[in-house]
Amino acid sequence: MLGAATAAYSVAIIAKPELFARPTKLASDREEIPRGTAIGIRALGGRDLASGLAMAFAPEGTPLRTAVAVRVGSDVVDLVLLGTTLPDRQARAKAAVVAAGWGALCAVGLWAA
User: Is this structure's pTM higher than 0.85?
Assistant: First the structure.
């Protein structure tokens, strides 16, 4: 289920980068999202889409554990980078909490796998 949820959110931010840019304060509610920011968000979405699909479709055992470990690693990177570099302090805190939460959920999934 976590893989499918990850993939679904990824498709959403690839299609509409503002879904990621506005809550993280990479763009204000009124401004157009800069092209470079949209490209970066779509790349992040592509990474997460791949890991989400891998989690959703990997067979049990080592393939599934590997897919979940990649997802957890991505969440750790997000926690560190978004939690320290976003332009807004509150957005950094929220992004860190979200990344830590997804990472923790996926880590529990890794343990269960």
Answer: yes
